[in-house]
Batch of 3 targets.
Target 1
Amino acid sequence: MRVLGVDPAAAGPTGYGIIEGDGRQCRMLHYGALCPPEKRRRESAGGTLRAVHELLGRLIVEYEPDAMAVESVFAALNLNTALRLAEVRGVVLLCAEQHGIPVHSYSPRQVKASVAGYGQATKEQIQLMVRAILALQETPQPADAADALAVALCHLQAEHTRRRFVFPAEAPSTHAARAAGGATHNRALPISTRR
């Protein structure tokens, strides 16, 4: 499975990372961060949103991810920051929808717990764990790119667990199905009930 992870940002760089794997083994294909010039950020929010949309569109066309994993909006932000972050997140979701890519959201705490084993891990700890898990030669920079890789890893692990325990016989890689010319779609998962 191939996953495009995105760490949307209101003012700083929007991180992105693409990984491929099966939940047990994975490798990094590409990562980075879109850093619009300070002048452009101040003058045109629309220009920044367009740059994010264009970048993600190029990444989707080039790498053909099976899913997009996005860090959800952090609730304790001030109103202006939350609104700007929601705008960027909206563009990310729109781009995924335009390309038919399913989107999965994870809270910062979920991502940290999945990658570092601790929901309050620092950015530095996340960077080190991403480097170790993906066997990278260097620590991913900037931290926004490492966060995006962490979001992708979180989804890969969640998807591996879901496939292993819910539909093991019915879970072929959608990337493989797409390459073979087959249809791809998401199955609705049954909600477990207590008895």
Note: The chain has one domain: 2-179.
Target 2
Amino acid sequence: MQGGGGEGGGAVTAAGEAMAPVQIDVRMDVALLHCQACLLPLKPPVFKCEAAGHVVCCFCRAGHATLCSRAGTHCGELDAVVGAAKVPCPYKVFGCERYVVYHGAADHQRACQCAPCSCPEPGCVFVGSRAMLLDHFAAGHQRHAVTVRYGRPWNLGFSLSRRWHVLVGEDRSVFLSPSARSALPPPSRWSTSGRTARPKRRPSSGASCPWSARRATARTTWSS
């Protein structure tokens, strides 16, 4: 019985592998994936101008029809192509392993958690992912991150001798807390989840101010 079950399981696995779609990497002229009217990436539904063979998106269909008289033919074959054409994330070198549909690549890039961050230290040209940035802070600037928890109050005491301090949230979000004497803006919530570190909001100036990290609330105090 066990032997029979094993053979049956193997047959099911083989059948599943046989049904899995085969994917390949191809190279093609990227212009073929762009609307010939607005030049933006095509996404379904795609239309074809029968008069001159122009391929246009649904937004340009009406306007192009007035130029070529016929731009209303829906091209289902191209829908399948532009809906399946995938490219690696441009931040692959920074750790993102996702392949995204070409027409959605820009949206993914704006939200990608592997987007590179710039080091806030003046004169430092380092650029890397959040994980790389934390390693760089420790190795290049001797700044070790302080782990914080969301949803609970806590106090932080920082020395004024340093220009900025690194905090890491439970979800590995990286925050910078500039010191009161720093050339950076006054202490506030900073996030390096985008391309560069930038303040999310600007509180009133002073040596002590409320600081929040998403769902957490805290108060930073500064000492010489």
Note: DSSP finds five helices and 15 strands in the chain.
Target 3
Amino acid sequence: MSLEELKALQTRVTTAINTFEDRQRQAALAEMAIVAAKHGTSLEQLFKQSGGKKAKLPKPAKYKHPENPELTWSGFGRRPSWIIELVEQGNDLEDYAV
């Protein structure tokens, strides 16, 4: 097979997978609607009550860059490069605590 034929095949396979997944989702929703109706409610009411995810508030800064106060780090997640550099230079992280 040529590269062009392989790409065309890839497109057809991707389309077929997406179509299959859409049908599966629709079937699952239909089954869920039947169960909800048996309990005297609807999917809309059930999903509305869940409220979804709550927005996470940003964590307050715990450390501040000594020369650029706009550079901060909450102490959570991956360490920013400026923190890594300061620690590698032998500085104590607590010296930069807010």
Note: Residues 63-96 form one domain.
